[in-house]
Design goal:
Layout: H1 2-8, E1 11-13, E2 21-23, E3 31-35, H2 42-55, H3 57-80, H4 83-100, H5 105-116, E4 119-125, E5 132-137, H6 142-151, E6 155-159
Antiparallel strand pairs: 1-2, 3-5, 3-6, 4-5
Helix pairs in contact: 2-3, 3-4
Length: 171
């Protein structure tokens, strides 16, 4: 899936066993990435989630079913440009990721900082256990947020969704 997105650009809605669906964004919007400085531990995070699934299988299934429906809502929010709904979903997902044990105190601190200084939403990205957070900034707050995190000693930068994917130049 990650390779498909890099090649084709944009975003895909993925469900195991089904063909991925391309999400058509209503418009272009900025995101901010902040690197925590902690190497992610995807393998350990997968083990944690699988252990939780074994320990509370019915709760885990309810959570994954709800997550699938919320992913559909998020894709619809992107297609409509409904950033208020997208923000609510992103913030809720961060709470769930923390509950699952894949967030860390550092990532949680970064999310809180992001929301405090002009982020509409913030959550970890990737498998958790370290790595980065992604922030959906309030309009016009991008530079202030980036400056804040750089002053705290973190690497922070603005990105925009790519709709064209990878390309090569002939030299």
């Amino acid at each position: 899936i990650d390779i498909s997105i890099a090649i084709k650009g944009g975003a895909l809605l993925f469900k195991k066993g089904e063909k991925p669906l391309k999400i058509n964004f209503k418009d272009d919007f900025p995101l901010i990435v902040v690197y925590s400085g902690i190497e992610r531990e995807t393998g350990k995070m997968i083990e944690k989630v699988l252990e939780l699934k074994k320990r509370i299988p019915f709760t885990f299934k309810a959570l994954t079913d709800a997550s699938s429906k919320m992913s559909l809502l998020a894709s619809e929010a992107l297609e409509r440009g409904d950033y208020k709904l997208l923000s609510s979903l992103m913030n809720f997902y961060q709470i769930i990721l923390d509950w699952l044990g894949v967030s860390t105190p550092t990532l949680n601190k970064l999310v809180e900082e992001a929301l405090k200084v002009g982020g509409s939403a913030a959550k970890l990205t990737g498998g958790g256990g370290g790595g980065s957070i992604i922030i959906l900034p309030l309009e016009g707050e991008e530079d202030k947020i980036i400056k804040h995190f750089k002053e705290l000693g973190y690497e922070a930068f603005k990105v925009r969704p790519s709709f064209s994917g990878a390309f090569a130049w002939k030299v």
